[in-house]
Amino acid sequence: MKLLFMGPPGAGKGTQARRIAEKYGIPQLSTGDMLRAAVKAGSEIGLKAKAVMESGGLVSDEIVIGIIAARTLEPDCAGGFLLDGFPRTVAQAEALDRMLKERGHAIDHVVDLAADNEALVQRITGRSTCAGCGEGYHREFKKPRQADVCDQCGGQLVQRADDNEETVRNRLSAYQQQTAPLIDYYRRQGNLKSVDGMLPMDQVFSAICAILG
Ligand code: AP5
Q1: What's the number of CA atoms in the CB half-sphere (13 Å) around residue 178?
Q2: Are 12 and 204 in contact (CB under 8 A)?
Q3: Which has the closest alpha carbon to 174: 20, 49, 22, 56?
Q4: Predicted local distance difference test score (pLDDT) of residue 81
Q5: Which H helix or E strand runs over 43?
Q6: Predicted pLDDT at 9
Q7: What confidence score (pLDDT) does residue 62 get?
Q8: According to the model, what pLDDT value does residue 194 have?
Q9: For position 40, what pLDDT does the model report?
């Protein structure tokens, strides 16, 4: 199964992608996670991406398309994958379509998570993530049992460098200008399903599972 999750920053793509990827036994391919790993490693891609990510803009199409083209050829993607946060521009979507067509593949479901802007700011500024396993938390909506410690692996919870209010507003604006047009792009292809991302997390999960069958 090949899945694509889209939606504005904070809509819950990562939260749901982790659970869905586990349920269906496919890897979660988050371009955001891959770029953060590149920044941490200080690689050439990381050096190019760091300032753009910290400002809330989008990393170049060329870089993210290259990352996904290579990652989807790895053996764990043979049975499918879940794209989380890619594509984010029409150029990325067209490149993905071309790449999959050349390989004789296609996306089975595009899930769009919708949520309102003020809720997104509140979610992102209250978010923390485990430095060890990547599990996400929220100071109101998903508290860890022990402050700043991951329930799953005992790792330390940290805040992302781009999770401050100013950067979040820039990310929302980048989403409106460059990513929202993809809703029509996939609607025209006939495989877009919208899910209300304002529902409680378990209800969002159930709604996605009902779509995927
Ligand atoms: P990326 O890491 O993809 O960030 P994003 O799209 O801004 O999305 P987030 O991770 O912030 O939000 P999410 O939707 O995953 O929400 P989450 O589940 O964590 O990208 C970061 C940067 O990398 C970009 O700005 C860009 O610079 C670059 N980049 C990445 N991909 C790129 C691409 N393809 N092209 C160019 N540049 C790219 O949830 C958020 C919080 O809300 C959590 O605390 C969670 O617990 C809580 N929450 C989730 N669901 C609910 C719910 N239903 N109710 C209440 N709380 C909830």
Answers
A1: 21
A2: yes
A3: 56
A4: 98
A5: none
A6: 96
A7: 98
A8: 97
A9: 94
Q: Which residues line ligand 1 (CB under 6 A)?
A: 7, 9-15, 30-32, 35, 52-53, 56-59, 64, 85-88, 92, 123-124, 127, 136-138, 141-142, 162, 171, 197, 199-201, 204
Distance 210 CA to ligand 1 centre (A): 23
Q: How far apart are CA 147 and CA 140, in angstroms?
A: 12
Rounded to the nearest angstrom, the distance between the alpha carbon of 99 and the centre of ligand 1 is 25
Q: What single string gives the DSSP state of each residue in 72-141?
A: TTSGGGTT-EEEES---SHHHHHHHHHHHHHTT---SEEEEEE--HHHHHHHHHTEEEETTT--EEETTT
Structural fold of domain 2-117+169-212: Rossmann fold (3.40.50)
66 Cβ contact list (under 8 Å, min separation 6): none
Residue 89: its pLDDT value, please?
Answer: 98
For the stretch 131-157, pLDDT in tens is 999 899 999 999 999 999 999 999 999
Residue 196 has what pLDDT? 98
Give the start-to-end residue ranges of the domains of the chain: 2-117+169-212, 127-162
Determine how β-strand 109-114 pairs with β-strand 192-196. Answer: parallel
- Residues above pLDDT 70, as percent of the chain: 100
Tokens of 25: 């036994």
- Enumerate residue ranges in the chain where pLDDT < 50: none
